[in-house]
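Quick start: read one record
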Amino acid sequence: MLVVDASVLAPVVADAAGDGRRFRERLRGEVVVGPDLLRVEVAAVVGRHANTGQLTPVQADVAIGDLLDFPITVFPTAPFLRRVWELRQNLTTYDGCSVALAEAVESPLVTADRRLANAPGLRCDVEVL
């Protein structure tokens, strides 16, 4: 089982080549989980890329469809909010949700965010792609 964050899942659904291909290969055959806000985070990234012209409207629509179809198990964030709060000095609330989930399910967090991976106080393994 792997916990993923938006820095991994957004390229998986929105980047046909490059990082997207590499990240999809890493996740192949794995049980992928994330916090319930993950899809919203990824949709925001896709929207930002569509608004800046990095994705065409068609590419963005396909990415959202792929996001909805992506086999991921999501966990509610409410049970982790105390831990997220503890991490607030070193992580955003969103990143804290991913870390707290990884800690709770005792699985590695897979991210493309080196800053997150190097944050102090994490009690989970972090793999940077």
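The radius of gyration is 14 Å.
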